[in-house]
Amino acid sequence: MLHPRPTGTAPPAFRISGTVWLGRSRQATVHVEDSRVSRRHASLEPRHDGLFLRDGQSSHGTFVNAVRVPDGGVVARFGDVVRVGDTLLLVVADVERSAARPRRSEGSRLGLADTLVAGPELAAVWDEARRAAGLREPVLVVGETGSGKECVARMLHGERENPGPFVALNVSAVPEALFESELFGFERGAFTGAEAGRAGAFREARDGVLFLDEVGELKLENQVKLLRALDTGQVRPLGSKGDVGVSARVVSATSRDLETACDTGDFRADLYYRLSGLVIRVPPLRERRGDILLIADEVLSQRSPGLALSTDAAESLALARWEGNVRQLRHVVYQAADRASSEQARSVLPEHLASLARVEPDSRALTRDRIEQAFAQCGGIASHAARKLGVSRTTFYKALKRLREEGGDVALDDAEVVRLGSGVAAER
Question: Model pTM?
């Protein structure tokens, strides 16, 4: 169950075997305490790719990814969000794993301002980082911007027996001319204005961790310099006549596909092999929907204690695309909390949220029956039917084209003629 649930508790979870009922009745296999849920609200039947849902003529309807389940039922695939009344549920393949209690890690222990929370997918990444802490190999953390790569690096550092310093450097933000002095340091008098020497990031991280963020953005000439330092375990500060040994463990991070960059010649393969002794992948937020509301609730509890997410707002957050990942989510919830607080609202409502792009559903989820029903209910206007189904017109037209290729036109009743050969519907 995604929402509601007390912060820090394991979510109620249900294993579905055979056709069962979801409802408020104590006899329901999936029992939900929600006054807006009917006693026998919906039937659930396991499929290889999810659950087949059929609404049981409930008072308030059953929804999958904010789209009402039609009379004939629909398959809710793994990762889909089901709404009944004021309750949100997530369809998962591994019930035991998803029912685990969320993990927490105090940010202050890791040198971060925010407390970290993790559902099962991210908790597995944390475990990887902890296992890697006792090893010597360089670590490459891969993930989209804002997904929490530095958090993983700090966790790895914090789990070391003798952690030493943690030195972070975003190499993409270092001007090319300053790359050597930032990483390797310089001697006094090495250049005009160098009135005092500087150790540089490698030596500052002695016996600790040197975190090189966005390493995939390094220019080729600087890749060579970094590779030499890693190969030799030595750096030469600017203005120095000799090399100096370094003993930092290098943890790097990138949002780029470095293997592809190696194939195109944009990144040196030998440096990639050096950096990727161990590779830890941080999945994007949209692949771990169970984390979205965990993080949102944690942010709310810190920002505005007493405020809660309304079901409508929680559903919007759970279904958003989150291209900016955790960083974007925190920003959106911060702003929403401030808006709700300024209105003295008791909960965060959808109107308090910034405009959010939703994850686009797979057009294969749009069956012939669902499309025909939507057309009939919307007077045959394609854009209205697409909106009713909760998809973009592009996805809607893809589904029309697929159905045409599978054989037979979609029956439109009194709707306008739709030319399916090109997958484009003509509007009135």
Answer: 0.78
Q: CB neighbours of 120 closer than 8 A, spacing ≥ 6?
A: 94, 97, 98, 100, 290
**What is the rounded distance in angstroms from the CA atom of residue 386 to the CA atom of residue 367?**
13
At 357, the amino acid letter reads A
Choose among 154, 158, 156: nearest CA to 127.
156
Mean pLDDT computed over 12-18: 88
116-146 confidence digits (pLDDT tens)? 888 888 999 999 999 999 888 999 999 999 9
Neighbours of 163 (CB within 10 A): 15
> How many Å apart are CA 79 and CA 81, to the nearest integer?
7
Query: Residues 234, 257, 140, CA angle at the centre, nearest 5°?
Result: 40
Joined together, the tokens standing for residue 415 give: 């709707």
Q: Number of helices and strands (H, E) in the chain?
A: 15, 20
Question: CA of 359: how far to CAs of 78, 80, 325, in Å?
Answer: 14, 10, 13
pLDDT tens-digit series, residues 153-166: 999 998 888 889 99
For residue 397, what pLDDT band results from cuts at 50, 70 and 90? confident
Can you read off the two tokens belonging to residue 62? 């059953």
- Estimate the share of the chain in helix, then strand, then coil, as percent rounded to the nearest 5: 40, 20, 45
